[in-house]
Amino acid sequence: MKFGLFDHVDRGTDPLQVFYEDRLRIAEKYDKAGFYAYHTAEHHATSLGMASSPNVYMSAVAQRTRRLKFGPLVYCLPQYHPIRLFEEICMLDQMSGGRLQVGVGRGISEIESSYFGIDAADVGEIYKEYYQVIIKAMTSKKLTFEGKHFNVKNMPLELEPIQMPHPPIFTGLQNPEATRWPAENRINVISNKSPEAVRDITDSYRREWDGLGYDPEELPLLGMTCFVVISETDEKALVMGRRMYDVWYKSFMKLWRLHNKTPPLAACVETFDEMISGGKAIAGRPETVKELVDEHIDKSRVNYFVSRFAFGDVSYDEAAYSIDAFSEMYLTS
Fold it and tell me: Of 26, 14, 124, nearest to 320 (Cα)?
C-alpha cells in the first residue's frame, strides 16, 4: 500500500505570493513525512487551479523536495504543443533526479478548452494523437509522426527522461467500463468516487490485467482520492472541514456557474457533510480517521490511497497537523 497526495492548488483567501509559499512549505512536509507522490490538477481561468502552468509549479516543488515524487493529474494534452510538452517533461524528470509522474487526460472542462480555441468535439481525438506523439518521442532520437492534428518529419530529439522508457503514466478514471486501455498500457489510475464505486473500477482493472496475462506482482497503482481533515477532536475537524470545503466548492463551481452549466461526471456535492456520507471525505481525531481510512481501503481494494489535506482556506498549520498525524499512523516505521 502506498500513500499519496492530491491538490487542486485552489486559491484560498491569502495573497497569491503567500499562497504559493505555503503550498511549497506543505510540499516540504509531504517530502519529510515520506509520502509516495504529490499530484496536482491543471485548470485555467478559475480559482480552482492556481497551478495552471503545472511545469512551472512542479519545477519549484522539485527544488524544495528531495524524495517526493510529483506530477500533474493531469496534463490537459489538447491544450499543449506535444513537442514542447515532451521537452518539458524530460527537463523536469532530469532536474528532479527521476521523480516526475506524468498524468495525462483530455481535460474535464469544455469551457476551459474553448478558451484555447479547441472545439469540445475534437478534444478526445487530439488527446489520443498527442499522447501517441509524446510516448513515441520518449523512445526516439528522431521523431517522425503523421497525424490529423500534428505532423513532423525527422525532428532531432536532444532531450530524454531519466526514467526509461518514460516516467510512470497516470490517468483519472471514473468508469469501470473504461479500464481496458489503461490496463493494456500499464497505466496507473486514480478515481475520486466513493469506495464502493472505486471497487467496481479496481475489480474491472484487475480482470483486464489478469486477462492480458500480465504479472500480478507488477500491477500498477489503483488509487482513490479523499478529502482528509485531522484535528484534536472529531468536532473540531468537522468544523474545519466544513469551512475549508465551502471555499473549495465555490472555486469548483465558479466557472461552471459563470456559464450556467453543470460539470460533467462531478463527483463532488455542495456540502462537506454530504461528501462524508458519500465516502469522499473523512474528518476527525487521528483514531477516527485511521479507522475510516482503513475501511475505505478495504472497501475499494485500492493499493494507493491519495489524501487531500490542502484545500479551500486551509492554513499551513492546519494542513501540517493533518499531515503529521496521518504520517504517524501510516508512514512511520
Answer: 26
Over residues 152-180, mean pLDDT:
96
Write out the three cell numbers for 333.
516505521
Neighbours of 143 (CB within 10 A): 19
CB atoms within 10 A of CB 213: 6
The pLDDT confidence band at residue 191, using thresholds 50, 70 and 90, is very high
Give the C-alpha separation, 19 to 105, whole Å: 26
CA distance 243 to 247: 7
Q: pTM value?
A: 0.96
Digit-coded pLDDT (tens) for 255-280: 999 999 988 766 689 999 999 999 99
Q: Distance between the two ends of the chain, CA-based, in angstroms? A: 14
| C-beta of residue 189 within 8 angstroms of C-beta of residue 170 | yes
Identity of residue 218: E
CA distance 237 to 248: 16
In the chain, beta strands by DSSP E:
2-7, 37-40, 69-72, 75-76, 102-105, 142-146, 151-156, 169-172, 188-191, 222-230, 281-284, 304-308
Beta bridge partners of 143: 155
* CA torsion through residues 63, 64, 69, 70, sign: negative
**Element of type H or E holding 200:** helix 195-211
